Automatic annotation (TrEMBL):
PROSITE patterns: PROKAR_LIPOPROTEIN. Belongs to the SusD family. Residues 264-578 form the RagB/SusD domain. It is found in: Cell outer membrane. This is RagB/SusD family nutrient uptake outer membrane protein. Its main location: membrane. Transmembrane segments: none annotated. Residues 21-222 form the SusD-like N-terminal domain. Pfam families: SusD-like_3 (PF14322), SusD_RagB (PF07980). It comes from the Bacteria. Keywords: Cell outer membrane, Membrane, Signal. It comes from Zobellia barbeyronii.
Length: 579
């Protein structure tokens, strides 16, 4: 599947992917339409360049965005990585380079989508009547709408620039900011066109389909509190069998290379280490990303006797690590027992936690071909690591996946079905259907072997026995289910959620007063000998090596709060209508 889109992108790289600023992209109108837009094969090639622009690490910017939430810490607590501190401390200014790259990368996707849209519009009536023409137009408009949706949700209170065409004159580059309402209307029009004109599935799984569009449309209505409208799209994603979505029940593959395009993947960015490995580590037009480098441990794989190749920068927060490690398991599920025997010993770490993060006391789950305490020390307050974007399931070191540990071919899943279940459950909760919401949440929890929510229904599972109300179920969704199921996934999802729920200041203040400490952990090393990992096991409350997190974020949100990123300095300087 990974090989299907790459040849065309490589052929386009010289003309469409070499520019670092989106305003430098080549204008298709400078080429003769007689030779450039004469067939749907040519337009398909240019559509592929839009998918290629999505490979840019800055489009999602997972390495930065989740530091300004309650989910991640930038490196060791004793010595945070300085480049990411403005995100963690929530003091981002217009001249921050990463803010500018986020802005430019999304407008680059828009630019290329507009190239395709204008090229398709210039075709003959015969070509326009072809179903392929409609599908290509729908894909281009999806990406144009998606990028405006992303920009609207994180920049300048939603007041951004609508770019709906390729500039013809130098003066066209300068354009005024649109209101939030204008931007919403614009991207919804694009997304609705895509929703109505894309098939339920393409043979090529790398292509977006109607289910992906429905997910984004539903999310857009959820973000503005229009639950009834959001549910229309979420119900379609969940119930429309033509999409072929289902919760993945083999949880061992969910966050691994084997799980690429699994049954619950809705929108997935397709990377590879089989192409253009000669590209530099920070070439945003390459086919790899850097998240494995940022997520993997630094230093050596002790058991394998070699350097892992990680930097240990994108680290799970303390509270998240603790919750992953202590979710109540369903004691009637045999997967929760070391030998699969319900009369035996329970796992030390629940399945959702063991698939999402590495911690020192998880001696059952494979990690870089051994188990976690055998591989790395978890010292100096690096008490957990994200697994989701590493290649820990197939190699003993990130060096083995390409020419450099900076280059990972792991796919990145942007949207998946369990996220739609949770958003639908939120809508049901907000509209009074508590039992309906519980049923969708419990489907997710059951596939992980976790204790179910609510009063027992007589099935052979453990229930927490709580009688949930709208308030208590929303509390669970906000601080348990959403973050534990979807940590560091999607586009700025956690930050947007904290802001739209109106709980960001309260959340960061609470965490800034919640102490954690570290204890030693005994384990059996790869040679079968008893060994000790000092100050590696996270525990809640006061104790040795006590610390708190998010003090700076709590202060930042006190007033005025950093709810949106500023318009980048580069746009202000170059756009006379803003300047």
């Amino acid at each position: 599947m990974k090989n299907k889109i790459y040849f065309v992108i490589v052929m386009l790289a010289g003309t469409l992917q070499s520019c670092s600023d989106y305003l430098d992209e080549q204008n298709p109108n400078s080429l003769s339409t007689d030779t450039y837009w004469t067939s749907l094969e040519e337009s398909e090639s240019n559509l592929t360049s839009v998918y290629g622009a999505m490979l840019d690490n800055w489009v999602l910017d997972i390495e930065d965005e989740f530091f300004r939430t309650d989910l991640a810490h930038p490196g060791k607590r004793t010595n945070p990585t300085g480049a990411y501190l403005p995100w963690y401390q929530q003091r981002l200014l217009a001249d921050n380079a990463a803010v500018g790259k986020q802005w430019d990368s999304k407008y680059r996707v828009i630019w290329r989508a507009n190239q395709v849209i204008e090229g398709l519009n210039g075709m003959s009536p015969d070509l326009k009547s072809n179903e392929r023409w409609t599908e290509q137009m729908a894909q281009a408009r999806f990406f144009r709408g998606l990028m405006h949706f992303y920009l609207h949700n994180i920049f300048n209170d939603g007041k951004i620039i609508i770019r709906d065409k390729i500039p013809q004159e130098s003066t066209d580059y300068s354009k005024k900011l649109s209101t939030s309402e204008e931007v919403i209307n614009f991207f919804r029009e694009d997304l609705e066109y895509a929703y109505q004109n894309l098939p339920a599935q393409f043979d090529q799984k790398t292509r977006v389909d109607a289910g992906a569009v429905a997910t984004i449309l539903g999310t857009s209505y959820l973000y503005e509190g229009n639950y009834e409208k959001a549910m229309i799209y979420f119900k379609d994603v969940i119930n429309n069998g033509a999409y072929g979505y289902s919760l993945e029940t083999d949880v061992s593959i969910l966050f691994t290379n084997t799980g690429d395009f699994n049954s619950e993947s809705i929108f997935e960015i397709n990377y590879s280490i089989d192409h253009q490995l000669e590209d530099g580590n920070f070439d945003e037009q390459s086919f790899f990303h850097r998240l494995s480098r940022y997520s993997a441990p630094s230093g050596r794989n002790v058991a394998a006797g070699r350097t892992i190749g990680g930097q240990g920068i994108l680290l799970p927060s303390a509270w998240l690590t603790y919750e992953y490690s202590n979710e109540p398991m369903d004691t009637q599920d045999s997967r929760n027992y070391i030998n699969g025997d319900v009369t035996g010993q329970l796992r030390t770490i629940p399945l959702r936690g063991s698939q999402s993060i590495a911690v020192v006391n998880d001696t059952l789950s494979p990690y870089y071909l051994f188990n976690a305490p055998q591989v790395t020390a978890f010292d100096k307050t690096s008490f957990s690591y994200y697994k989701k974007y590493t290649n820990h399931d197939i190699v003993s070191a990130e060096f083995d996946t390409g020419t450099s540990p900076w280059k990972s071919g792991r796919n990145i899943v942007v949207n998946r079905l369990s996220g739609v279940y949770l958003m639908y459950a939120e809508c049901l909760t907000k509209t009074g259907d508590i039992n309906g919401a519980l049923s969708y949440i419990n489907q997710i929890r059951q596939r992980w072997g976790l204790q179910l929510l609510g009063v027992s229904d007589g099935l052979p599972h453990d229930f927490d026995g709580e009688v949930y109300t709208e308030s208590t179920l929303m509390e669970h969704l906000m601080y348990k289910e959403y973050p534990l199921e979807l940590s560091v996934e999607g586009f700025s999802t956690r930050f947007i959620d904290l802001r739209r729920w109106g709980v960001a200041q309260e959340r960061f203040s609470e965490l800034s007063m919640t102490p954690f400490h570290l204890n030693d952990f005994s384990y059996t090393d790869a040679k079968g000998k008893e060994a000790l990992r000092k100050q590696s096991l996270l525990e809640k409350g006061p104790g040795k090596k006590e610390f708190v997190e998010y003090t700076d974020a709590a202060n930042a949100w006190a007033s005025p709060n950093p709810a949106y990123l500023p318009i980048p300095q580069s746009e202000i300087l170059n756009n006379q209508e803003i300047n």
